[in-house]
Amino acid sequence: MLHSRLQLISKEIHIHYSSKMASLLKASSNVLQSEKLPFLSRSKTIQGVVPKKITFRLVPIALSLSTSIGTVERDLRSNSSDIAIPIMENGCTGKMGKSVIQAADSAGLYVVPVSFDAEKKSGQTVEVCGKKILVHGPSDRESILASVFQEYPNLIVVDYTVPATINDNAELYGKVGVPFVMGTTGGDRDRLYKTVEESKVYAVISPQMGKQVVAFLAAMEIMAEQFPGAFSGYSLQVMESHQAGKLDTSGTAKAIISCFQKLGVSFDMDQIQMLRDPKQQIEMVGVPEEHLSGHAFHLYHLTSPDQTVSFEFQHNVFGRSIYAEGTVDAILFLAKKVKSKADKRIYNMIDVL
User: Residue 250 carries which DSSP code?
Assistant: First the structure.
């Protein structure tokens, strides 16, 4: 089923992007000068053949696709009967929360003037897109959410809070019975899914909301399923760079590493090199200074046992628009599932695709 979905997606974008991909591949063929360079790790230093300076050279493909595809989707939304869907953005004080509000407002969704956040932020008023949103702390959130849900029975909650709160938040959403989109990473994921299953609320849960990145991950999963052990014996080096405020290891990196493990690669998650220092991000991977506060650069470098063959996979994202637009698509998708009273209750971004 997943394979057929990806075939449909591939057919839709192939015509528009085959020439662009060809030119990008041609450009990348000229940048393979390498030398021995330490590949840092939190646990140990690994030696490997990597580019002299890891500059993440190509224009981010995921971002390029997002721009054009998003335009088409906005045109479709303008004729949709779902454009007045009310949403409650929890975590609206954060940059991701604000980006989602901006994308939702552009799509014609209604952002209710209430949000949840940490106790220290309770009582604050956040203004985004000309809308004033009152922030409430944990102490009175159940009564507040129940009141908002009663006023807006078609409400969908969007959660971009922090890893430490997602399990309690999910329990609250389940208790009140409100559907939600969870983009927050970390937390106890097994407990999260168990909570949602038991509450029987509708939810889209995904640590990665960028649709094009999700499509890449899905392709990796298909390869791992169809060609297990294909990279047996290969060594793997992983670097992921995110803004300093991202405290946890990238969930996307972990998912892709899991695919490589199924392909026969031996790799421990604690070998992931997490870059959070702005100076290193500029000097080591070439993150533009203006995007230090919001980016996602990932590099996966595979080397054969005899060092004669190497593969590199990378995906680079500037800013947060790709995730915000994907979140809006998840909201629209979930609203339709709730309205149709679908039997399935828990979805991910593959379902949204």
Answer: P
Strand partners, 131: 128
| Single pTM value for the model | 0.70
Measured CA to CA, the distance from residue 326 to residue 296 in angstroms comes to 15
Q: From its phi and psi, is residue 186 left (phi > 0), alpha (psi between -120 and 50) or beta? A: left
> What tokens were used for 100?
């989602």
- Tens digit of pLDDT for each residue in 208-250? 899 999 999 999 999 999 999 999 999 999 999 999 988 888 8
Classify each residue of 269-300 as buried b or exposed e, where b means 16 or more C-beta atoms within 10 Å of its C-beta.
Answer: eebbbbbeeeeebeebbebeeebbebbbbbbb
Residue 148 and residue 123 in contact, taking contact as beta carbons nearer than 8 Å: no
Question: What is the enclosing helix (H) or strand (E) of 244?
Answer: none
- C-alpha 349/C-alpha 208 separation (Å) is 8
Q: Per the residue annotation, which of 98, 136, 211, 246 is the catalytic one?
A: 246
Is 52 part of the annotated catalytic residue set?
Answer: no
Q: Is 120 a catalytic residue?
A: no
Query: Catalytic pick from 211, 242, 315, 337?
Result: 242
Burial of 74 (0-12, 13-18, 19+ CB in 10 A): middle
